[in-house]
Amino acid sequence: MIRLDAFGTPPASTPTADAASPHVFDVTLERFEAEVLLKSKEVPVLVDFWATWCGPCKTLGPILEKLAAEYHGAFLLAKVDVDKEQQLAGYFQIRSVPTVMLLKGGQIVDGFPGALPEGQLKQFLAQHGITPAEPVAEAAAAEAPPVDPEAEVIRLRHAVAEAPDDGALKLDLVLALLKVGAAAEAETLLDALPANLATDDRAVKARARLGFAALLKDAPPAVVLEQAIAANPDDLRARHLLGARCIVEGDSEAGLVQFLEMLKRNRAHEDGLPKKALIDAFRVVDDEDLVGTYRRKMATVLF
User: Fold this and answer.
1) Active site positions, annotated
2) Cβ distance 9 to 101 under 8 Å?
């Protein structure tokens, strides 16, 4: 285990995660929410904070990758190069490498510093109910994957190029861009829509979703925001960012809960931000019953 006096040690040539393994991948701050926190709600994720200049990391890393392959997807291994991802390492207060954290259900449940031998690593996994899975059958592996959001953006780009006057196609592209986090391009396209589409329900929802996405540009991961709220329930900024994350990621009720709690605690916060956040969320959320429920709850608080 090597302590970090400061990040920024000049890295040597940086190895990347084994591209041949579907269970091992490099992760960045921008993709941490989608590839680690959200994914950990489906399958446990080990996060390996490492550095190229760290000797113990060179011992631990290959063992973790070997186990990820042998466990056939019973857990995923996300690798974070602390020199390249200093902000992400800072969020998790990494003070030495290697450091490994285990996330399940969107939460950190355990971890350890330093390099453990393979036997102890297997014991660590077993303590959390992680045992080797059966290899995926060829037939299952051959099943058609779900639509790739990036591929959908490419498809719609081509479609718009072939029919540049088709405003509806452009609106489809706006919504696809929002799904991959390309908020700036989506906003440019949205601003250029003809007047008859600018008031379309999907355009209104896209505009509201853009507002939430803009909040998250440099926001901490959800787990950090949850820790901040646990430490100080009156941290309305953390509640606002967490609510926005939930809305953008499709957990509508969790987002509405945060915004309503903001309203209860301080309706005048930042010139009425809690009420505005709720109203913007009502525009984004598709579940009319859920929106109706929270509209009534908002009215109860206000009146």
Assistant:
1) 54, 57
2) no
Convert the pLDDT of each residue in 132-170 to its tens digit. Answer: 988 765 444 445 566 788 889 999 999 999 999 888 889
Q: Check if the beta carbon of residue 111 is closer than 8 Å to that of residue 99.
A: yes
Cα of 131 vs its chain's centroid, Å: 26
Q: Which residues of 166-177 are buried (b: 16+ CB within 10 A; e: fewer)?
A: ebebbbbbbbbb
pLDDT confidence of residue 84: 94
* Domains along the sequence of the chain with CATH: 2-141 (3.40.30.10), 149-206 (no CATH), 222-302 (1.25.40)
pTM over 0.70: no
Q: Which residues touch 83 (CB under 8 Å, ≥6 apart)? A: 7, 8, 9, 10, 11, 14, 51, 52
Q: Using N-to-C axis directions, what is the helix angle for 273-284 and 236-248, rounded to 10°?
A: 10
**Can you tell me the distance from the alpha carbon of 214 to that of 44, in angstroms, rounded to the nearest whole number?**
29
d(CA 257, CA 3): 40
Q: What is the mean pLDDT of residues 240-244?
A: 95
DSSP string computed for 247-275: HHTT-HHHHHHHHHHHHHH-TTTTTTHHH
Return the SS3 of 87: helix
Q: How far apart are the first and last CA of the chain?
A: 58
Query: CA–CA distance from 157 to each of 84, 182, 201, 281 (Å)?
Result: 31, 13, 22, 28
